[in-house]
Design a protein that fits this description.
The protein is built from six helices and 44 strands. The chain is mainly beta. Helices cover 6% and strands 38% of the residues.
Amino acid sequence: MQKKLVQSSLAISAAAALGLSGALVASPAMADNAPQKLDLQSEAHVQKALSGIEGVNAYGTEGGELSIGVAKKTDDIKKLEKQYQNIKVTEGVKELKPYAKNDLVGGAGYLVKAGESGGACSTGFSGWDGDGKPVVLTAGHCSKIINEQTNDFDGDTTVDQTEKPSTSEANGGEGFQASGDGVIGKWGFHNFGGDLLEGADQDKWPEPSESDIDFAVINVDESKYNVKNGITDWSTADEDDLAKSTTEITDVGEHKEGAISKSGRTTGKTEGEVLPRSEYDFDYQNVGGRWVHGFGVTTPIDKPFSQPGDSGGGVYQGSTAVGVISGGGDLDANTSFTWVADLDHSLEESGTDFNLEKPGEETPEAPAAPKAEDQTIEPEGKIKGKAEAGAEVEVKWEAAEDEKGAQVKTQADKNGSETAKADKNGNFSVEGPEAEGDYNVTAAATVDGEKSEPTEFDVTVEKDESETPAPVEREISVDPKEIAASDFVKEDKGVTITVKGFDEGEKVTLEVANGPEGVEGIELDETANENGAAAFSIYGTSAENAEAYLGKYDVEVAGANDTEDESALTGSFEVVADEDGSGGGSGGDDDGNNDDGNADGGAGDGNDDDGNGDGGSDLPRTGAELTGLAAGAGLLLVGGTAIVLTMRRKNNN
């Protein structure tokens, strides 16, 4: 731009950029009839077949075959495929838009007015805001009228027209000639740095802030300009159409060390190197007397990365937008230096919602391909894999070829396919081939009409000749069968119920079916471990009224996979008063008396508030937190006796 940017230890001059972008066109249609060969010698026959069918974005004939390109197959196109033998349909071919000279892409020049004078900057990147309105990103200082003596702001500039590319300095011209396409639009968000850095005493300068950015948004006039994705390389400037040759921008991201590119109206497309943090460990630079957040880029002195007028120009690595030009100067006698306002930081600090594709018009991404390993199954066994939750997964198989390249006859007739829906965890399974042998298998997932790439794997079908082990007999163990009330209300004691003989991973449910009057029954769920075992813990929580739990409890345990022939396992235990029990109290550590003459953990006087003992009337659901034996149990030898230890986790209930 026309401003002078000063830095205490490095003279930084401003630069800036703007842009256009383009697209192409295509759109025929189609017809119907019985299976036949379409006469491709006659263009009239081809057009008749295509007439009335929407969605055809490209077509051509070669080798007796009509090739059709579509974004995705519609019912009409599928019908057309079945109607003619010599039609090939390719999905993923988009409709293109025509190029226009008023397409705005990144890296082009634009003019600004500042009262009677003005200047030129460059566009950074073109796109859309969150509401789908077209916008252009550029440098914030291009929006400011800056007093050259004081560096104070004297107001805002006014956005004017794009600069005629053929006359720009990047194309060898003198620049500053309007394109004649009209005013681009108006400033949206715009900010240049923080408070002015005044005085020679740097200790008195304001501290830099995250919000010190050199960044602006131009809200584009849709009646005059189209925004197009991409950043120009300036190779078509002579045609006054910068959108004809661009680099596609697919992402906005953080810059990385290494090679970097820029496009702007003064120096065109240039290459540089990101200045490593090991050499220039700063996040803020004094640009024109104000702190600006960003990063540095260097080039040889005779090949500057940017010059005045490149300000706002798009800085990118590959297809990722990383910044806009803020300022530049000479680092030393051999090195040209440019400060780049980092784009990811500027967008976040400004709260700008910037999209490289118009919201609502994005092409849906294809789902990830399913995951499946080579596997061996029994005849008609399950072929298994994982895909996106809810995806429709089509699994196809073909008999593998023998060493001579021929399919085994008995298998060739068994080629087929099955479709299954992935569950909420992404697991899917289909019934595999009946015939034994080796198969080449593919699996492809479809989500919201978009199909993934196929995953290839091998499946071997063979009978399992090994003997099926006899099922483990189901058993239940209750320990202890009788427990003193004061022990029953202790978390580290209580009653443990262990069962076995269930399937690995099966949900096992324990129900306290019967108990003393006033005590509620409960249900607890556990998962059987790899040995088919599960364990439950039951204990009371009302230690102040332990006697409320006195009585006999009947329990039943059943599995989710139980058949009609399998009955629930049953068992029982009894909670007795301390004087009737075989243990409890303080565990024998003293004379059995404590405070009021009752055992530790006992019920005191057996009453709660109203004397009815209601405080212990609910059996707590703590057992529901108990892990199965695989994770939560082990054997400990104590005095030669094996004791099952069960991990208990407290439940907030």
